[in-house]
Design brief:
Chain B: InterPro entries: BPD_transp_1_N, MetI-like, MetI-like_sf. Chain B: It is found in: Cell membrane. Chain B: Belongs to the binding-protein-dependent transport system permease family. Chain B: Its main location: membrane. Chain B: It holds the Pfam family BPD_transp_1_N. The complex is a heterotrimer of chains A (257), B (322) and C (335). Chain A is an alpha/beta fold and 257 residues long. Chain A folds into 2 domains: 175 residues, 3-Layer(aba) Sandwich (Rossmann fold), CATH 3.40.50.300; 68 residues, no CATH class. In chain A, strand 9 and strand 10 form a beta hairpin. The two termini of chain A are 36 Å apart. Chain B has a domain of 179 residues: MetI-like fold (Orthogonal Bundle), CATH 1.10.3720. In chain B, helix 1 packs antiparallel against helix 12 and helix 7 crosses helix 10. Chain B has 322 residues and is an all-alpha fold. Chain C is elongated, with a radius of gyration of 23 Å. In chain C, 71% of the residues lie in helices and 0% in strands. Chain C folds into 2 domains: 64 residues; 264 residues, MetI-like fold. In chain C, helix 4 crosses helix 12. The chains are: A alpha/beta (257), B mainly alpha (322), C mainly alpha (335). Chains B and C meet through helix 1, helix 6, helix 7, helix 10 and helix 11 of B and helix 6, helix 7, helix 10, helix 11 and helix 12 of C.
Amino acid sequence: MSVDVKRLGVCINGKPIVRDIDLHISDGERVGLIGSSGSGKSMISKALLGLLPTNAQVSGSAMVGGIQVVEASEPVLASLRGRYVGTVFQNPASSLNPVLSVGKQIELPLKLHYDLDKVDRQARVARMLEKVGLDATIAKKYPSELSGGQQQRVGIATALITSPRLIIADEPTTALDSITQRRIVDLLVELVDKAGASMLFITHDFSVLSCATTRCYVLECGQIADSGQTAALLADPQANSTRKLVDAAHELTLQRK
Amino acid sequence: MRFIVRRFLLFVAALFVISVVIFAALRILPGDAPSVMAGLNAPPERVAMLRSQMGLDRPLAVQYSSWIDGLLHGDFGISLLTGRPIGSMVAARCSVTFPLIVLGLIVAIAIGLTFGVMAVLTTRPALRSGFHLLGLIGGAIPALWGGLLLILLFGRGTGLLGVLPSQGFPETGWDSFRTAFASLVLPALTVGVISGASLMRYTRSALGDIMHSGYIDQAMACGYTRRAAALKVGLRLTMPQLVSVVGLMFASMITGVMVVENLFALPGIGTGLVTDLGNRDLIAVQSELFMLAAFFLFIGFLVDLLHRFLDPRLRYAVQERA
Amino acid sequence: MMMRNDSHNRAEEYQTGTDLSDMRQGAVSSVERSANQPSKRAAKDRENVALGRGFAVVLRLIWKRGEGKFALTVMTSWVAISLISLFWTPQSLWKTDGYQVWAKPSATQWLGTDGIGADVFSWLMAGARTDLFIAVASVIFAGILGVLLISIMVSRNSALSNGSVVAVDALISIPTILIALILAVPMGASVMVVVLACGIGYGLNLARVARPEALLAANSDYVGSALSYGASGFSVMLHHILPNVMPTVMVQLSLSAGTAVLAESGLTYLGIGVPSGVPSWGHSLATSVKLIDVYPLSALWPGLIVTIVAVALNIFGDVLRDTTDPSSNPELRRS
């Protein structure tokens, strides 16, 4: 599913957070959105999903799979979310419903969008758990009983259970340690590619971006500062903000390898 | 399971402590109960007579153990004034007060949850401030005054609309169900609306906080609308907190209940306690206070259990520590 | 679940080293202070100045908001009227006139007279001071009890802290009115019954509400480092833990003040609060209720006043909560 964002702007209580965002994702493409914290990355993903707080005003245009999400009504957006667009959030510990067992959690999008019987749904959940590398017995457990890596696998399973055409991953690895980070990114890329879905991968870490995406946009102070092939940007950063982020990535991880 | 046992032991310990406090308050605290009870300028003989009648001339330990012994056997003592067993007196009063509390709670929860959720979900600023104002003012009305306003509006005889009874309770009690129920409507509305306004403020702030959390984003990302996410996920997540609040509300509501019982002349616990206190019926007051305290401690026990049950994270957190 | 994990925020505050000593003082600065004995007095003075300035800043922030203006105006008038009533009321409180009962409002009796012919307006004025005393005294009592309980709850003696936590958890379900009733049996109806009952009830409540924040502070790294510098438990409590719970304590106490005024009216009506003959709003309300059938409007004023004052104190608490949260208030940091 393709995404086409033109001159998107988000204000919260009249204060602009992001403006003039132009962003394109083709079918089956993995695109990154990178920026330091506070640059407004999450606002863009929330705008695409219709998850902005009620005091936010959105301007411009954002087409997700041929639907204009900026002016779409809540039911239209809800029918898009979980069915055609799957989302993986930053911190599974504070986003997975703590009072729902893992199985019910993953089952939820199926329940909301498809008319399947219980046996069928549970079979799909079991297959999904296997795909993300989790044991089937985990379905009965609650999120608080799992490790951070396991929780994020549950998050990925929930996002992918309906085979959505677009995955939005909003800093999916930030809450994890570096080894788990790598495994989660690899898993996500593998599953997205296998399904032929598109992905918008949001992060502040170039080292993660390099394995997750082919092309990326650099966001600074709510505006797109740079864009291009991820590998090219990483090898030869031009814009100031890009260089800062690349330097940081080198300092922290890449150099040590 | 261990938690239940531990919490129950705490409940029993608290019961013991409160029984000692009540017992001591009537005997040891500054101020001599018999002379307060006999009234100002009472002859010393009357005070002495009252003292021996109440058994206050016996050693404290003997007094206390005989009282507790009676309580354990379901014997709450004999009223000094009427000579009737206190147990049956209290039972009769409970048949008025309990339905009143339950009705009040139903009104409070209905108002609190409905308006609280609406206040969170509405996007219209005017409606938002309207709910805000409603919560502020509703919770700040003295029960006495609120009851009065309702009498003036709806009370039979005095009220503008004059549709509901505003004084008394049928002699025949719940046998005449319609009259009995009707006489509880205004009192229950009074305490219900006041507590409901506070509950609404809690609901609004707790649910409002949850609505900004990742849990709601995740639920919406699965395909819920904001409204459905608030109702199906948000409310469930605020439940443990709201149960605690409702538990505390119980305790704060009882002041209002006692006031409206007196205002609407309902023969309940509150009216009874005030009468017994006025009649200086120490033994009755002592047992009644203890029963009230036991009731509220038990509610506290239940609320804590429910709270634990509603939040799986708490269950596991405790297991990990143990 | 709702416990905000703001330890991170706080750590940031301390690092930025802004002069936060007004409300929550920085751990770093006070560690330096205790290491630097000679300048202790100067530091103390600085701290007092900063505290006063912080207070002024908070008041200004509250005044800036529409609701805050209302709350502060009501509270100031309350204090002013209480003070005036000590020296002057339009009519003497004890001037009664058997021929002038339930009189209509007039030039001399602004709100009419009550059942024994006393001036309603004067009694309401005088009632202000009793209610002010009750609110202030019970809040002070609750504050002391609450802070004491919090200190025990976060103390390093685990038997003591666990014991106090369960005790508070169990006792919190005892309603204020029950405490008042227990106290009223030996003491009779008196202002002190209201003050003590409210103080105990709200003190317990305060301890329960502020405990999570106190624990968060007690388990924090800066407390650990202060202890490793050899600071005593008492000084850690005073310098590191209390400043962190102070905003919550202030908010809770101002909400409690409103509840105390409401409780006074209820307890007085039930005959276990302010004794007859002592002016109070609850007393005015209770006397007017008796003849509600005949003179319905007489109950309007005391009820209205109690409601307005309780609303003002609630608003004050709410606004205080918003303004003392430094993460949402850059102005408090800069000052």
